[in-house]
Amino acid sequence: MTLRDPVLQPVRIAELRPTQMTVGFREVAEKRRDWRERKGDEAQDFLGRHMIPVIKGPKDRLYIIDHHHLVRALHDEGEDKVLVNVIADISLLTQASFWTVCEHRNWVHPYDDKGRRCPPDKIPKRIGDLADDPYRSLAGELRRCGGFAKDTTPYSEFLWADFLRQRLPRQRVDSDFEKALKKALKLSHSHDADYLPGWCGPVEA
């Protein structure tokens, strides 16, 4: 079932399907700024080193299972194609069985911008239709400033986003992101967060 053979021909971003419902738009904006600084060969080299992992599903559709923020940033910057790496071909499954396998393999995150679980058919069919979850942006920035360590747990930033969602009003995050980040940093080092991946709380003597 596992292929891990890169598709050398670029694939149109419009043909790629997400496996999550949201991204953090602040994260996307940062990646867009980074992309604009890359020119010519440097840009092409960057794309060659950042192939997008996908799985082949029913009707041979390609589903992104990582780097949604990068692909959305490239899409918003007007880029048409990316290189992909097909890590599994489960195209013979029915749509229902496909989503079941995706869930058990941690290949799908069907939660909306309020942290509510939704049926898979509510997942956008295009990368450009992903919604903004400001708590995902907050979690990403929290990790960068040392609130927690990078971790291999699938969707670890979304776990942190939900932790913050329960403790910080969205109005505060939307109106004063820097102030919300300071509060998030304090929360991240509390024992309330010690169950989360990458927790870097105080060590008691």
How big a fraction of the residues is strand? Answer: 15-25%
Global morphology: globular
CATH second-level architecture of the largest domain = Alpha-Beta Complex
Give the name of the CATH superfamily of the largest domain.
Answer: Conserved hypothetical protein from pyrococcus furiosus pfu- 392566-001, ParB domain
Any idea how many domains?
Answer: 2
Individual helix count: 8
Q: End-to-end distance, in Å? A: 48 Å
Low-pLDDT segments, ≥5 res: none
Radius of gyration: 18 Å
Mean pLDDT across every amino acid position: 93
- By secondary-structure content and strand pairing, the structural class works out as alpha/beta
CATH class of the largest domain: Alpha Beta
Instruction: Report the major sheet.
Output: 5 strands, mixed
Could you give the order of the helices and strands? EEEHHEEHEHEHHHH
Provide a concise account of the structure shown.
It is built from eight helices and seven strands, in the order βββααββαβαβαααα. The chain is α/β, with parallel strands linked by helices and 205 residues long. It folds into two domains: 2-132, Alpha-Beta Complex (Conserved hypothetical protein from pyrococcus furiosus pfu- 392566-001, ParB domain); 134-193, Ubiquitin-associated (UBA) domain (Helicase, Ruva Protein, domain 3, Orthogonal Bundle).
Describe the structure.
The chain has 205 residues and is α/β, with parallel strands linked by helices. The longest helix has 12 residues, at 25-36. The strands form 2 sheets. The chain has a 5-stranded mixed beta sheet, with no helix packed on it. A two-stranded parallel sheet has the order 3-7. It is built from 8 helices and 7 strands. Helix 1 crosses helix 3, helix 5 (134-144) packs across helix 6 and helix 5 (134-144) packs across helix 8. It has 2 domains: 2-132, Conserved hypothetical protein from pyrococcus furiosus pfu- 392566-001, ParB domain (Alpha-Beta Complex), CATH 3.90.1530; 134-193, Ubiquitin-associated (UBA) domain (Helicase, Ruva Protein, domain 3, Orthogonal Bundle), CATH 1.10.8. The mean pLDDT is 93. The protein is 39% helix and 17% strand.
